[in-house]
Amino acid sequence: MTDVNVKLDALAGVDPNALPLQVKNLHVEFRTRNGIAHAVNGVSFDLRAGETRAILGESGCGKSVTAQAIMGILDSPPGFVTGGEILYRGVDLLKLPESERRKVRANRIAMIFQDALSALNPVFTVGFQLAELFRMHRGMSRQDAKARAVELLDLVKIPAARQRVNDYPHQFSGGMRQRVMIAMALALDPEVLIADEPTTALDVTVQAQIMALLAELQRERNMGLVLITHDMGVVADVADRISVMYAGRVIEEASVDDIYASPAHPYTKGLLESIPRLDLKGQELSAIKGLPPALTNIPQGCAFNPRCRYAQEVCREEPAPPLYQVSPSRTAACHFWKEVKGDE
Amino acid sequence: MSDLVLETRNLVKHFPLTRGVVFKKQYGAVRAVDGINLELRRGETLGIVGESGCGKSTLARMLVGLETPTSGDLFVQGKNMSRVGAEERRRGRRNIQLVMQDPYTSLNPRMTVGDIIGEPFEVHPDVVPKAKRRAKVQELLELVGLNPDHINRYPHQFSGGQRQRIGIARALALNPEIILCDEPVSALDVSIQAQVINLLEKLQDELGLSYIFIAHDLSVVRHIADRVAVMYLGKIVEIGTEDEIYETPTHPYTQALLSAVPVPDPKLRGQRDQIVLTGDVPSPADPPSGCRFRTRCWKAQDICAEQEPLLQIREKSGHPSACHFAEVRDVVHATE
Q1: Distance linking the first and last C-alpha atoms of chain B
Q2: Domain assignment of residue A291, yes or no
């Protein structure tokens, strides 16, 4: 892979010692006919090289929008980034012109999507689509690029890569298609990989294959991984740090062990308790009551307060709680984090 | 035997593969379901697990009468549904109702909730007299935890979890004995999933229902099921009580499936003896000879290709397992 590692003309201001990805106070809104949907309201997180950061949340919590904003692939309009910074090694991507951003996309920060069938172009062979990356970003000839495509398919353990490179996406099974996506994301050797629900559409045995492959490739390349998911099993298996999102905010941030051992936000706690567990067989599951709010109409105060069993006056009247420092290495956005964490 | 509410004997569904437009010639068949024997008792929950393409949904469609079996018998409360006349078959269907996976596409967007839940009464008018239908629908709404005043609303005015409740109310309309749930919670968020599972369990207690619960989420099935059948490529490979399947699985496929499920506890990371299967599920149009799992199995030997292992109790397996080398293997150290 050595000749691909020739980096493109350097981005101005890149500090090799800065973190590969830092998101600071990101705000994204969608201006729709039914009003403004506040999809992301001040999300911050850091990602170190080689680290896996899980962003955990249910549908509509803004986790995918955060990923799209980082990649710069937000549908705009209606989506607009209205505030915050996205720093790649100290460079604020939001301030770069589109031509500069293209150099970051896929080269330094790459993404894989949930539904590989709709993310791949159905009218080109996977080999062509993979080779395109090398031709566009590395200026390789068609022939060389095709050879690289075969190498990549081999890397993601697609059997008979030399033949399959000429197949179309629909000729691959779900798991194989996801491997093609991973190959495409890793083609230009990015430092950060964002995986948006990479295994949600797959069966468990295939999910295990894909997660094992991702972990192996991440380790080899010391790549930072942002894993966006709602599956608490997958998170427990692979993540180092977790940001839990609710209604466009990070409501808890901690290491994976801390979160699972003693959640400090009632929502995190509710999520963990609603997973069926063996010792609760035959008993009622403790479900979180109610529904997540519409993003056009987020409740006053703490967005979770209508569903929360700890909620008091202060949760409704004060503005949304800040991220309190629960311990030196973790934060939670709940006025009553002590009680929540304490009664475990 | 009176508490046996549903039984299948060697149920088979093959979808023909044809060539040509005018003179259709059959050149093969997709063996979606290939000989299933099941029993369901009153008040029991039977879980069916398996990956996509294993035939679990085709099986469900046959059980509720949406698909005609290619061969085999289906008994609902002792009556052989493939032998009785059309009228009796129609009446029999009342007893077995379906809750579908996707609450967004399984409700007609142009009908009000009242019409959706009341539609079964149009087909089976003798269940509830016309004058009492509206009240009955409201009663059903209340039973599934929805506001009875919302009877005139349309599906789009409800969230995913609430829509699934509407689907459940519709299934309950004809007072069935058996409810067949085909992936009832897989389209829902985790926090909503738990609400729907709790509702299903509550209804079972109150109404004495029997459930066939089809899902690919093994932890959900474990929570709700009394007995579990594991399907692979149109066949049951292992069947037993929930404990037998999850604690002492003896079929390699069950073991691989269980070990692949991520456990929501970071302390167990790396301690699990994870079996990562290679390759994909073979095509059901051309299943492997002998044991259908042999192409992905680490135990496979010559006999597996020559002789199909029957689903039976074996030397090292206290419950039926379709593997020549069935043996207990401790795969999941999860959840103490």
Answers
A1: 37
A2: yes
Contact A286/B at CB under 8 A? yes
pLDDT band at B2 (very low <50, low <70, confident <90, very high): low
B332 pLDDT band, cuts 50/70/90, is: low
> What is the Cα–Cα distance from B336 to B327, expressed in whole angstroms?
22
Residue A87 and residue A35 share a domain:
yes
Residue A13 lies in a domain: no
Q: How far apart are CA A212 and CA A195, in angstroms?
A: 14
Query: Which residues in chain A are closer than 8 Å to B268, comparing Cβ atoms?
Result: 236
Rounded CA-CA distance B255/B276 in Å is 10
Q: Which chain A residues have a beta carbon less than 8 Å from that of B223?
A: 276-277, 280-281, 285
C-beta atoms of A274 and B280 within 8 A: no
Residues A60 and A156 in one domain: yes
Contact A276 B265 (CB under 8 A): no
Least CB-CB distance to A236: which of B161, B192, B265? Answer: B265
The total domain count for chain A is: 2
Do residue A268 and residue A135 come from a single domain? no
Distance from CA of A239 to the nearest CA of B (A): 9
What is the 3-state secondary structure of A263-291? Answer: CCCHHHHHHHHCCCCHHHCCCCCCCCCCC
Chain A residues 110-169 within an 8 A CB cutoff of chain B: none
Q: What is d(CA B187, CA B272) in angstroms, rounded to the nearest whole number?
A: 28
ipTM of model: 0.78
How many of the other CB atoms lie within 10 Å of CB of B19?
10
Residue A5 confidence (pLDDT): 42
Domain match, A47 and A79 both: yes
Give a yes or no: residue A244 inside a domain.
Answer: no
Gap between the Cα atoms of A134 and A187, Å rounded: 8
Q: Which positions 16-45 of B are in contact with A (Cβ < 8 Å)?
A: none
Q: Compute the half-sphere exposure of residue B328: CA atoms within 13 Å on the CB side of its CA.
A: 13
Residues of B in contact with A215 (CB under 8 A): none
Q: Smallest CA–CA separation between A261 and chain B, in Å?
A: 8
Q: What is the chain A residue with the closest CA to B196?
A: A287
My answer on whether A161 and A118 are in the same domain is yes
- Using the beta-carbon criterion (under 8 Å), do B194 and A235 form an inter-chain contact? no
pLDDT for residue A343 = 53
> How far apart (Å, rounded) are the C-alpha atoms in residues A231 and B80?
42
Say yes or no: A33 and A139 in one domain.
yes
Q: Do B264 and A173 touch (CB under 8 A)?
A: no
Q: What pLDDT score does A180 carry?
A: 92
A226 and A107 in a common domain: yes
Question: What residues of chain A, 53 to 92, have a C-beta less than 8 Å from chain B?
Answer: 58-59
Q: Which domain holds residue A335?
A: 249-276+286-342
Q: How far is B277 from chain A (nearest CA, A)?
A: 7
Looking at the fold, whether A48 and A175 belong to one and the same domain comes out as yes
Contact B264 A176 (CB under 8 A): no
Give the pLDDT of residue B335: 44
* Domain chopping of chain B, boundaries: 249-336
Residue in this structure with the two tokens 């929501």, named with its chain if needed: B264
B265 contacts chain A (CB < 8 A): yes
Q: Read off the pLDDT band of B281 (50, 70, 90).
A: confident
pLDDT digits (tens, 9 = 90+) for B54-106: 888 899 999 988 888 999 999 988 888 888 888 888 888 889 999 988 888 89
- pTM of the prediction? 0.84
Residue A183 lies in a domain: yes
- B160/A344: higher pLDDT: B160
- Interface check for B295 against chain A (CB to CB < 8 A): the answer is no
Q: What is the mean pLDDT of residues B118-133?
A: 90
Burial profile B196-229: b = 16 or more Cβ within 10 angstroms, e = fewer: bbbbbbebbeeeebbbbbbbbbbbbbbbbbbbbb
For chain A of 344 residues, list the mean pLDDT of each consecutive stretch of 10: 46 82 93 88 92 90 91 88 91 89 88 86 93 89 92 88 91 87 90 90 84 90 92 89 93 93 92 80 80 86 91 89 91 91 66
